[in-house]
Design brief:
six-stranded mixed sheet; 9 helices; alpha/beta; 266 residues; eight-stranded mixed sheet; 30% helix
């Protein structure tokens, strides 16, 4: 599937790497960088989001990726083609929902226009603090047992994530950079796995990849990429693992890293 002249893959996390939560826009300098990179590299989105979901509407069209690593590597697509999918076992979803009942955090899934969360009041509280409104369409979370679940979302503070990880050693809950929630991911999958699958699909050597990220769900991808770039607004642990730390998203971090690394040249 390799195109003549493509030098490799440049992969980007979405939230607070491409999409600035200060104004919910992709910075103009980042869009310009993507256009400059497009002729030389495959552009990949690697995110905890499902980019096919309602809450991601319009973002894919702005980025125009060659491939997408959705939901922390549990779904990988090239255009309309699904090249990999991993789903949680129903029994694990059931155990997680029962464990979450009565706790001071929420856990669940947003699917399409509907939200399936245990303890949904914590999702509403999070929305009100963050956006001053909440327009969720909450449904019975037990319906998740009859739905495909790839990853789940945790809404709450960090102590709760350690509680979940202790009870479920097969899971990891990397916190978002804003420390207000986490992805709930099986240890057998990661964005790094998704990147390697796209390397195979596009016939690109892993050392010819560059990966940008800001949160701990980017950690494995930053480590496995030929060059790992941490955003200046990212977690300190991620910065320590990166090959290069660029400026924050709001200070043209993506553009500045591309210039520093010479990605626009040749």
């Amino acid at each position: 599937m390799a195109e003549y002249g493509k030098k490799g893959i440049v992969s980007f996390d979405m939230d607070m790497t491409l999409l600035n939560h200060e104004d919910w826009k992709i910075p103009d300098s980042t869009l310009l960088a993507l256009d400059r990179l497009r002729d030389r590299y495959y552009i990949v989105i690697a995110t905890g989001r499902d980019m096919d979901a309602r809450y991601s509407a319009g973002l894919t069209e702005q980025v125009k990726p060659d491939g997408v690593i959705h939901l922390n590597g549990t779904k990988v697509t090239v255009g309309e083609k699904l090249i990999y999918e991993h789903r949680m076992e129903q029994r694990l979803v059931e155990r997680l929902l029962r464990f979450t009942e009565g706790k001071d955090f929420a856990m669940g899934v947003s699917a399409g226009a509907e939200d399936y969360y245990m303890n949904p009041e914590y999702v509403t509280r999070h929305d009100m603090i963050r956006w001053k409104q909440s327009d969720r369409c909450f449904r019975d979370p037990w319906k998740l047992l009859d739905m495909p679940v790839r990853t789940m979302a945790y809404i709450g503070k960090e102590p709760g994530t350690r509680l979940v990880e202790k009870a479920f050693p097969e899971l990891r809950l990397p916190m978002f950079s804003n420390m207000e929630g986490a992805d709930v991911i099986e240890r057998c999958v990661s964005k790094a796995d998704g990147l390697l699958r796209l390397c195979e699909y596009f016939h690109v050597l892993p050392e010819r990849t560059v990966a940008f990220g800001d949160s701990m769900n980017d950690y494995e991808m930053i480590r496995v990429a030929g060059i790992g770039v941490a955003m200046g607004n990212g977690r300190d642990e991620l910065k320590k693992a990166a090959d290069y730390v660029t400026a924050p998203i709001g200070a043209d971090g993506v553009w500045k890293a591309c210039v520093h690394l010479g990605l626009f040249q040749g």
